[in-house]
Specification:
COMT-like, two-stranded antiparallel sheet, O-methyltransferase activity, 277 residues, alpha/beta, Arc Repressor Mutant, subunit A, Rossmann fold
């Protein structure tokens, strides 16, 4: 499965197949500048996964899934990022677990093991700007592709109670979470913090939107600032509520839980914390 997807991504096969018609395997191989027989076998394997189909012998055309790879840039980048940059972690996770048993350090991840680096994975990627763009696209695609996620985040919490306050989104990427909130609550202002290079597409999107440009600022997040950095590592997709509260306690015991906002049937929640000096 991964093999055929990797070939599709590397040679941009989906983009070379016409959207409305078919193309011969021979012509497609020439367009991709690869050997035809092997490419044909790999693409027929991809067809088992519903990527492409063979409308007549020797010709290839899109299915709904392969067409999405050709037309949705963020999805295409997400696939590539998972395969080329993050996928190596699935191959080295056991090695990392054995080398750093029980460690929660950011530079003890499977990807750090795979790339043989002592710096956290995203800091490592930051050294290669061309690799940060697919990461940024993937984060936006993940945030926007969750069913109903944008609607849910605008209703999970009584944002109107904050009046004209300022919200800081730590690890906010391209602003995919806060932009829907900003559109719904025009009095609020926002600061999106993330690693250098992780928010470039978001900056362009906001700069072109008159409703948002004066209310959303992007800031490179300094991971060396006091204990707040621990909050940047909290990911609600992979942690239970108990784990989130534990991380907050580790960050600073003066964080006190105020409320937890949920919507029935939704996997999302907003944990409201108050910092009491």
């Amino acid at each position: 499965d991964e093999m055929s997807l990797r070939v599709n991504y590397h040679f941009r096969v989906a983009q070379r197949v016409p959207l409305e018609t078919s193309i011969s395997f021979t012509d497609l191989a020439k367009a991709c500048n690869v050997e035809g027989n092997l490419l044909t076998r790999l693409l027929r394997h991809a067809m088992v996964l519903h990527f492409f189909h063979e409308p007549k012998k020797g010709y290839i055309a899109h299915t709904i899934d392969s067409r999405r790879l050709a037309t949705e840039a963020d999805l295409f980048d997400a696939v590539g990022c998972l395969l080329e940059d993050m996928g190596v972690g699935s191959q080295t996770i056991t090695k990392a677990m054995e080398k750093w048993p029980g460690s929660d350090e950011r530079n003890h991840s499977a990807c750090c093991y795979a790339y043989n680096t002592d710096v956290p994975f995203y800091a490592y990627l930051r050294q290669f700007p061309e690799r940060m763009r697919p990461v940024s696209s993937m984060m936006r695609w993940v945030g926007e592709s969750q069913a109903g996620s944008q609607t849910q985040i605008t209703t999970l919490y009584p944002w109107q109670d904050l009046g004209n306050g300022t919200i800081v989104d730590m690890g906010g990427g391209n602003g995919q979470v806060i932009i829907p909130i900003a559109r719904e609550y025009p009095l609020l202002k926002f600061i999106v913090q993330d690693l250098e290079g992780a928010s470039e597409q978001g900056k362009r999107t906001v700069a072109e939107d008159m409703q948002l440009r004066d209310r959303i600022d992007f800031m490179t997040h300094d991971f060396h600032q006091v204990d707040m950095i621990v909050l940047a590592n909290t990911n609600g997709r992979v942690r239970t509520l108990e784990e989130i509260l534990k991380v907050l306690e580790m960050a600073d015991s003066r964080f006190k839980r105020e409320a937890i906002h949920t919507v029935k049937g939704s996997p999302f929640m907003v944990v409201e914390m108050i910092w009491k000096p």
